[in-house]
Amino acid sequence: MQSTDFSKGKVWRNIVAQSIPLVLAQLIQLLYNVVDRIYIGHLPGTDSMALTGIGLAFPLTSLIAAFTFLFGTGGTPLFSISRGAGEEERAEKILGNTFSLLFYTSVVLLLFCYVLRRPILYLFGASDDSYLYADAYLKIYLLGTSFSMLSTGLNGFINAQGFPRTGMLTTLLGAMLNLVLDPVFIFGLHMGVSGAALATVLSQCVSCIWVLKFLTGRTALLRIKKANLQIDRKLAGEITALGMPGFIMQGTNCMVQVVCNATLKIYGGDLYIGIMTVINSAREILSLPVIGITNGAQPVLGYNYGAKKFQRVRQGIQFMAVSGIAYTLLAWLLVVLSPHLLLSVFTEDITMIEAGAGALRLYFFGYFFMAFQFTGQSAFTALGYSRYAIFFSLLRKAVIVVPLTILLPKFGTGVNGVFLAEPVSNAAGGLACFITMYFALYRKLKNTAA
């Protein structure tokens, strides 16, 4: 069947066929949080404080996402490689183990984050005023941890079987529910940030039910089976090792957010923590297409690698790079020309919009360098080169961004130094990742194919 055999047809068409539904699915998934921020940013009488509170909760939501990526992006490439090699029994075992790892971890994270949320939020830079909003949101949001991790972490297995449209529907139902419930709970029932969190949890629950129904039903080629739910330590180790780059990328995002919020509290106060919340939201939206392309390419690359179609793997990497660079250049141009428009989507606070315009331009300067990072990272992950992927995940965030975020403001740049750290890391980390991928992987595939 053409839709599930990625070794046939044009490589770029296979990638696009996977990527378009993925972009739509990720856009819908993003609506869970971004729509909340849009509504919260327009709450009457809160100015920027409600957005600041949501921003303080970001590191914990990023931590949950990190563990989702650990098992989701670890299991999916292994699943694709096994399916491409005709090892369907092993592929189903990978699926079952990934489910169990996601579920048990979600319970631990829920208990840990819920019990310790007060000291954690103050550690992350909360003031007495912003804590009220952060706590109101987080104590409800955390209740949906299992729903969020299972729906997001397992959705890749639907796409990897050649059903990207079904993967899109996984989040579509929940997102539509979120869009309906948000204004009802936030404004109609006057629940404010608590209403936004409740709408998100209920929406995640619907998404989770949908994905589990598909992966246990007859339509799926490979299914979640009770016999495969017992965790195999060796297989769990393989999943964790390959998912470590995704974990580190999200985990270091958590670390960067903590450092940024703490530094901004010193040099700019609650206002600039709110601005960073808006900038992170804009970045998530603008990054969607390039992330969709690279994520959509992963099952195609993994399948062809498992089938020893190495020239097709090279073609897929080429397409990722060219399309990613072209898109990120356009996204950068949009930010340069319309920063006030992007900020006004999330807030009516004139002070935040004026102060945030310059910060937004600084943060996105040279944004096209991110395409090199995405391409290299996805190629390494898809083909099982986990050590390289882990190293470059750490390099960009932990080695470059975090130290610069702390040091640059000390040298006269103030809050601008926090926003400058990102473009520097994009250029240095992105080029280092891509160049290494080219020499260590891309050229090697040519020699192997020959």
Number of helical elements? 16
Q: Into which percent range does the helicity of residues fall?
A: over 70%
The whole-number mean of residue pLDDT values reads 86
What fraction of the residues are assigned to beta strands by DSSP? under 5%
Class derived from helix and strand content: mainly alpha
The string of secondary-structure elements, in order, is: HHHHHHHHHHHHHHHH
Q: How many domain units?
A: 1
Radius of gyration: 21 Å
Keywords:
mainly alpha, 450 residues
Structure in words:
By secondary structure, the chain is mostly helical. It has one domain (11-449). The protein is 83% helix and 0% strand. The protein has 16 helices and no strands. It has helices spanning 11-41, 49-84, 88-115, 117-123, 128-141, 145-160, 164-188, 192-215, 233-267, 270-306, 310-337, 339-344, 350-363, 369-382, 386-407, 415-449. Helix 5 runs parallel beside helix 8 and helix 6 (145-160) packs parallel to helix 8 (192-215). The longest helix has 37 residues, at 270-306. It starts with 10 loop residues before the first helix and ends with a helix. The model has no long low-confidence stretch (mean pLDDT 86).
